[in-house]
């Protein structure tokens, strides 16, 4: 096993452990906004210890049965919104990988382009659904369709920019960093995906800042 594979196993292990730590706590102290019970553990997978730290610092403020003053500033509220967006994208991207592998799908003879198409579609669907389940409970009187349209308006830009950052890294992995790109059955592949998610988070954060600042997207 080469050094990169060892690093990959360690990184994935830390990410999964971070997810488990958060999951155990949200089971004990569920979030007031139920979709965040899914969001926080997903973020643990790619943000690792930082997700654990941010959850216990900011996430628990919004847990049922815990009385804590909300001391979050604007940047941390945008972090909440970005985490919410990123988790939907991450879930869609992760689900998309085995679909492409099992079907053997290619686009223009490229497996990478197939991953782009399938993962973007699923990431967008999950991202919009996550946003819908965040805003619908607070605005049920407006109806399902109005909340669904608001979800598309609120999250489309940030979802697209998440995928832009992620796909850019995937292109580097596929065409520049490796002579033979890692495959989904290799842990190095999922380590590269972890990095892609982090980059996607960083590229979507400014969009979420702007969306929240303009009132297009609600503060979380």
Structure, explained:
- The chain is globular.
- The relative contact order is 0.14.
- Helix 4 packs across helix 5 and helix 4 crosses helix 6.
- It has one domain.
- The model has no long low-confidence stretch (mean pLDDT 90).
- The protein is built from seven helices and no strands.
- Helix content is 74%, strand content 0%.
- With 220 residues, it is an all-alpha fold.
Which characteristics define this entry?
DUF4396 domain-containing protein; DUF4396; single chain; membrane; transmembrane helix; 220 residues
Topology:
Elements: H1 3-28, H2 36-47, H3 49-57, H4 74-103, H5 111-135, H6 144-177, H7 187-213
Helix pairs in contact: 1-2, 1-3, 1-7, 2-3, 2-4, 4-5, 4-6, 4-7, 5-6, 6-7
- Treating each run of at least 4 consecutive H or I residues as one helix, how many helices? 7
Which percent range describes the beta-strand content? under 5%
Indicate the radius of gyration in whole angstroms.
Answer: 18 Å
Globally, the shape reads globular
Q: How much helical structure, as a percent, in the residues?
A: over 70%
Q: Would you identify the regions where 5 or more consecutive residues have pLDDT less than 50?
A: none
The total of beta strands comes to: 0
Q: Helix and strand succession?
A: HHHHHHH
- End-to-end separation in angstroms reads 43 Å
Q: How many structural domains in the coordinates?
A: 1
Tell me the quaternary state: single chain
Estimated structural class? mainly alpha
Q: Average pLDDT across residues?
A: 90
Mind summarizing the main beta sheet?
none
């Amino acid at each position: 096993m080469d050094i990169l594979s060892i690093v990959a196993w360690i990184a994935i292990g830390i990410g999964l452990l971070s997810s488990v730590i958060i999951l155990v706590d949200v089971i004990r102290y569920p979030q007031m906004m139920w979709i965040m019970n899914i969001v926080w553990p997903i973020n643990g997978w790619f943000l690792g210890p930082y997700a654990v730290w941010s959850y216990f610092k900011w996430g628990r403020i919004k847990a049922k049965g815990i009385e804590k003053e909300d001391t979050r500033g604007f940047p941390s509220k945008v972090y909440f919104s970005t985490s919410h967006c990123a988790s939907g994208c991450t879930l869609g991207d992760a689900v998309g990988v085995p679909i492409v592998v099992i079907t053997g799908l290619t686009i223009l003879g490229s497996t990478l382009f197939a991953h782009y198409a399938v993962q973007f579609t699923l990431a967008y669907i999950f991202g919009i659904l996550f946003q819908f389940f965040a805003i619908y409970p607070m605005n049920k009187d407006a109806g399902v369709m109005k909340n669904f349209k608001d979800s598309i308006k609120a999250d489309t830009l940030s979802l697209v920019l998440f995928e832009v950052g992620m796909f850019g890294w995937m292109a580097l992995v596929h065409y520049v960093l490796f002579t033979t790109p890692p495959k989904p059955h290799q842990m190095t592949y999922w380590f590269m995906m972890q990095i892609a998610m982090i980059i996607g988070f960083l590229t979507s954060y400014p969009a979420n800042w702007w969306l929240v600042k303009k009132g297009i997207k609600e503060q979380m």
